[in-house]
Design a protein that fits this description.
Layout (H helix, E strand, L loop, with lengths): L26 H7 L7 E3 L5 E3 L4 H16 L15 H17 L12 E5 L6 H10 L2 E6 L2 H13 L6 E5 L17 E6 L7 H14 L14 H4 L4 H15 L4 E8 L5 H11 L3 E9 L2 E9 L1
Parallel strand pairs: 3-4, 3-6, 4-5, 6-7
Antiparallel strand pairs: 1-2, 7-9, 8-9
Protein name: Ribosomal RNA large subunit methyltransferase F
Function: Specifically methylates the adenine in position 1618 of 23S rRNA.
GO cellular component, one term: cytoplasm
Length: 303
């Protein structure tokens, strides 16, 4: 396998043009960055190197390798059971909001720490601030209601010497999103969020089972990317969470130039459009994203 670790350069053309992960994973370089990854490399049916993506430890290890190789993040880990996100898709969100910010900057993507981004629900993994800062030099505030996740994100920031670029703030109330995080007089260029998409734990498990069955895998394999309840579902699911976010965003319209959120279900969009129209949003954009077989979208708005 040592001489077969490099994959071909087939591009994942559905990813953003600036995404560093459009090509096939170069396992030779990834193993060089993180030798521990070698323990998880297997061969697929075509005899090409890959990892077993049904194995949570393998998923976490390839994330560590990607973050180290592509973004210089030398120390990254998450507590057991927390969401371990796919890096390419997370990078796409960052690059698409960079395009949004470029529209207000004569087509040039603004870079540097004067660009401030608020990540709602930064999670134990702190992925968006890490990629956003390394790719564009932006400074981030990451809010988190779960104290274990907030502590994990802070540990990652400290371990990589990014305290001046990334500020982790504990949200003390599950009833609020921006309130309690954005300070008086504070300004942000854009906010972002990967909300809990499901309405119950049963819905999460059912979707996971359907995914494994579709892939011809054991339906009892579980959640290979992990995720705690508050990361995956909330009462009322995606529509209710987004409605609360949009309503509260109106109150902070002078603090943020743009607001944005991932939208998992296309059927959620009509209700969002209606709410934003009612709230008097001046501009609303929908950006389609696709990673492999998964399709999602980013909703962007401002007042």
């Amino acid at each position: 396998m040592a001489d077969q670790l490099s994959n071909n350069n087939t591009e994942k053309t559905n990813l953003h043009p600036r995404n560093l992960h459009r090509g096939r994973y170069d396992f030779k370089e990834l193993v060089k960055a993180l030798p521990a990854l070698r323990n998880f490399i297997i061969e697929n049916e075509q005899g090409e190197p890959t990892v077993n993506f049904t194995n949570p430890e393998a998923v976490k290890t390839i994330n560590q390798a990607l973050l180290k190789q592509s973004y210089g993040i030398a120390s990254w880990d998450i507590p057991e059971g927390f969401l371990c996100p796919p890096i390419p898709g997370r990078a796409d969100y960052i690059h698409y909001i960079a395009d949004v910010l470029a529209e207000d900057n004569q087509g040039t993507i603004p870079t540097g720490n004067s660009v401030r981004v608020l990540d709602i629900g930064v999670g134990a993994n702190c992925i968006y601030p890490l990629i956003g800062h390394k790719a564009y030099g932006w400074s981030f505030v990451g809010s988190e209601a779960d104290y274990i996740a907030a502590a994990s994100a802070k540990k990652i920031v400290d371990a990589n010497g990014l305290n001046k670029a990334i500020d982790i703030r504990k949200q003390t109330s599950y009833a609020h999103i921006f309130d309690g995080i954005i300070q008086p007089g504070e300004k942000f260029d854009i906010t972002m969020c990967n909300p809990p998409f499901h309405s119950s734990s049963k819905e999460v498990q059912a979707k996971s089972q359907r995914k494994w069955e579709k892939l011809g895998q054991d339906a009892g394999a579980g959640l290979n990317f992990g995720g705690r309840n508050n990361e995956l579902w909330c009462e009322g699911g995606e529509p209710r969470f987004l409605n609360k976010m949009m309503s509260e965003s109106k109150e902070f319209s002078k603090s943020c130039k743009w607001f944005s959120s991932l939208i998992s279900q296309k059927t959620t969009l009509p209700g969002c459009y209606k709410s934003l129209d009612y709230l008097g949003a001046a501009e609303v954009k929908t950006i389609n994203m696709s990673q492999g077989q998964k399709t999602s979208r980013i909703l962007v708005w401002r007042f």
